[in-house]
Amino acid sequence: MPSALSASTILASIALCFAAPRADELRFAPADGSESAMKCALTAALGIGDMSITVDGQDLSAQLPLDELAGKLALELELADRFLETREGRPVRFERRYVGSGSSFEMADTKGASTDLFGVDGETIVFEWSKSQSAYVLAFKDGDGDGSKLDFLSADLHLRSLLPERELEPGATWELEPRALVPALLFGYDVATLGAAAGGEGGLAQSAKELAPLLDGLLAGFRARCEYVGAREQDGRRLAEVKLTLESDGELDLRDALRQALDVESGLGDLALDVRTATGKLQVRGKGTLLWDLGAGHAHSFALESDVELLASLEAAFADEQGGEHSAEVEVEVLMELAWKMQ
User: Fold this and answer.
1) For 29, which of 6, 223, 284, 297 could close a Cys bridge (C-beta 3.0–4.6 Å)?
2) 97 beta partners
3) Which pLDDT tens digit goes with each residue over 74-123?
4) CB 167, CB 24: distance < 8 Å
5) 48 and 66 in contact (C-beta within 8 Å)?
6) Cβ contacts of residue 87 below 8 Å, gap of 6+?
7) Is 247 left (phi over 0), alpha (psi -120 to 50) or beta?
8) 84's torsion region: left (phi>0), alpha (psi -120 to 50) or beta?
9) Is 123 helix (H, G, I), strand (E, B) or coil?
10) Domain ranges of the chain
């Protein structure tokens, strides 16, 4: 017969097996005065699948150099945040040092690279939340700098939008609002601020304003599901793991946006182009992982990989310089592999 001590041990072990798992609360709560460094990266590989162009019933697809349309793009951003005050899950006041940033691209025989994407590398910017404006007010810490450059900076790079507002047990799931996912993928920007960040009229501003409603339309087809896997000890930190699954089957009417773009700058000389129909079908499948530092109260790392297929179709009529009328039909399949990383 087992001793009283061993019997108690057995009963305690059995009780533990049936006990409710520990609930964890994933919340943004860094201590005042604490610091967090992060490196954000976005890479994209672009290629063309099927493509066809028909003009006046004649198939011109064989003349297209599809291999020259493939390319790669990479964006990098390195930051260091110092949290001065946090309230109710929001960094009310913090300093952000822009350590470095850059981009590179490659397409066919063309390559390029640039640095200092926002023009503030090496600078420290103070972000302070304004209740009256419902937005952050930005300023250079040393008081000197080109204030217009601050219009392109976004505060929310902390992935707060991925968190549910409740305690979680392993196996818990929740759905993300499509808009909540955008800041995690666009270096902190959301749909509402794309146009505002560009500012002014024409050029980048006009492109951003036209992109915002298109992006909003695509989000209607997005489905993002999160599952809490649980917490584990790693390198002296207690990290909570969240799995993210992303799916999208969106469709857009691109005719008006394309017509506006042609009106602004067509580059077609005297060629009059009438876009009759222009549609885009987008399919996205992606999986990712968020690790949240429960002790520090902020994200530890984030990684997401996705495959994107865009099928664009266009029907148009145009007249040449001699007044001859023609018709054209274009269908192109764009294939992309995207990867986001934050560590």
Assistant:
1) 297
2) 80, 124
3) 999 999 999 999 998 899 999 999 999 999 999 888 899 999 988 999 99
4) yes
5) yes
6) none
7) beta
8) alpha
9) coil
10) 22-342
Phi, psi values for residue 179, rounded to 5°: -65, -30
**pLDDT single digits (tens) 267-315:** 444 556 788 888 888 899 999 999 999 999 999 999 999 999 989 898 9
Q: Which two tokens stand for residue 325?
A: 């009328």
Q: Model confidence at 18, in pLDDT bands (50, 70, 90)? A: very low
Sign of the C-alpha dihedral computed for residues 83, 86, 91 and 94 taken in this order = negative
Q: Is the C-alpha dihedral spanning 91, 94, 99, 104 positive or negative?
A: positive
Give me the pLDDT at residue 213, please: 64
| Residues forming a β-bridge with 25 | 167
**Contact call for residues 43 and 72 (beta carbons, < 8 A):** yes
Phi then psi for residue 183, to 5 deg, are: -60, -30
- DSSP readout, 77-97? EEEEEEEEEEETTEEEEEEEE
Choose between 122 and 218: higher pLDDT: 122
pLDDT number for residue 138: 95
Query: In sequence order, what E strands does the chain have?
Result: 24-25, 35-55, 58-59, 71-87, 90-107, 110-115, 124-130, 135-140, 167-168, 173-176, 222-234, 237-253, 272-293, 298-319, 325-342
The region of weakest confidence among 58-67, 131-140, 171-180 is: 58-67
- For residue 160, give both structure tokens: 């707060």
Tell me, what amino acid is at 232? R
Residue 60 has pLDDT above 90, yes or no: no
Three-point CA angle 310, 314, 316, nearest 5° = 165
